[in-house]
UniProtKB/TrEMBL annotation:
<keyword id="KW-0472">Membrane</keyword>
<dbReference type="GO" id="GO:0006355">
    <property type="term" value="P:regulation of DNA-templated transcription"/>
</dbReference>
<dbReference type="InterPro" id="IPR009554">
    <property type="entry name" value="Phageshock_PspB"/>
</dbReference>
<keyword id="KW-0812">Transmembrane</keyword>
<dbReference type="Pfam" id="PF06667">
    <property type="entry name" value="PspB"/>
</dbReference>
<dbReference type="GO" id="GO:0009271">
    <property type="term" value="P:phage shock"/>
</dbReference>
<feature type="transmembrane region" description="Helical">
    <location>
        <begin position="6"/>
        <end position="23"/>
    </location>
</feature>
<protein>
    <submittedName>
        <fullName>Phage shock protein B</fullName>
    </submittedName>
</protein>
<keyword id="KW-1133">Transmembrane helix</keyword>
Amino acid sequence: MEVLMILMLTIVVPLWIIFHYVTKWKQMKGISAEDELSLSDLRRSSDKLEERLRTMERILDSEVPDWRSRTDDL
Protein backbone atom coordinates (compact mmCIF):
# COMPACT_ATOMS: atom_id res chain seq x y z
CA MET A 1 0.00 0.00 0.00
CA GLU A 2 2.84 2.38 0.80
CA VAL A 3 4.48 1.67 -2.57
CA LEU A 4 1.26 2.54 -4.36
CA MET A 5 0.99 5.78 -2.42
CA ILE A 6 4.60 6.71 -3.24
CA LEU A 7 4.03 5.99 -6.94
CA MET A 8 0.90 8.13 -6.93
CA LEU A 9 2.67 11.05 -5.28
CA THR A 10 5.83 10.90 -7.37
CA ILE A 11 4.48 10.05 -10.82
CA VAL A 12 0.72 10.34 -11.23
CA VAL A 13 0.02 13.57 -9.34
CA PRO A 14 2.82 15.63 -10.97
CA LEU A 15 1.81 14.39 -14.43
CA TRP A 16 -1.82 15.22 -13.73
CA ILE A 17 -0.87 18.75 -12.65
CA ILE A 18 1.31 19.26 -15.72
CA PHE A 19 -1.36 18.04 -18.13
CA HIS A 20 -3.98 20.14 -16.38
CA TYR A 21 -1.99 23.36 -16.85
CA VAL A 22 -0.98 22.48 -20.43
CA THR A 23 -4.67 22.09 -21.26
CA LYS A 24 -5.49 25.43 -19.61
CA TRP A 25 -2.65 27.11 -21.52
CA LYS A 26 -3.94 25.77 -24.83
CA GLN A 27 -7.45 27.03 -24.07
CA MET A 28 -6.14 30.52 -23.31
CA LYS A 29 -4.03 30.62 -26.47
CA GLY A 30 -6.73 32.18 -28.67
CA ILE A 31 -8.61 35.43 -28.37
CA SER A 32 -11.95 35.28 -26.64
CA ALA A 33 -15.11 36.62 -28.27
CA GLU A 34 -15.23 39.43 -25.71
CA ASP A 35 -11.63 40.45 -26.49
CA GLU A 36 -12.36 40.35 -30.20
CA LEU A 37 -15.38 42.61 -29.70
CA SER A 38 -13.29 45.07 -27.67
CA LEU A 39 -10.61 45.14 -30.36
CA SER A 40 -13.25 45.76 -32.99
CA ASP A 41 -14.68 48.68 -30.99
CA LEU A 42 -11.21 50.14 -30.49
CA ARG A 43 -10.50 49.85 -34.21
CA ARG A 44 -13.72 51.69 -35.08
CA SER A 45 -12.87 54.45 -32.60
CA SER A 46 -9.38 54.71 -34.01
CA ASP A 47 -10.71 55.02 -37.56
CA LYS A 48 -13.12 57.78 -36.49
CA LEU A 49 -10.36 59.70 -34.71
CA GLU A 50 -8.06 59.35 -37.70
CA GLU A 51 -10.75 60.73 -40.03
CA ARG A 52 -11.37 63.65 -37.67
CA LEU A 53 -7.67 64.43 -37.61
CA ARG A 54 -7.50 64.39 -41.42
CA THR A 55 -10.49 66.74 -41.56
CA MET A 56 -8.87 69.13 -39.09
CA GLU A 57 -5.62 69.09 -41.06
CA ARG A 58 -7.49 69.84 -44.31
CA ILE A 59 -9.27 72.76 -42.66
CA LEU A 60 -6.01 74.12 -41.26
CA ASP A 61 -4.26 73.64 -44.60
CA SER A 62 -6.90 75.74 -46.34
CA GLU A 63 -7.19 78.45 -43.68
CA VAL A 64 -3.60 78.66 -42.42
CA PRO A 65 -1.34 77.27 -45.16
CA ASP A 66 1.94 77.42 -43.21
CA TRP A 67 0.66 76.02 -39.90
CA ARG A 68 2.86 72.93 -40.17
CA SER A 69 6.08 74.88 -40.36
CA ARG A 70 5.34 77.29 -37.52
CA THR A 71 7.00 76.93 -34.15
CA ASP A 72 5.09 77.54 -30.96
CA ASP A 73 5.64 80.96 -29.43
CA LEU A 74 5.24 80.21 -25.74
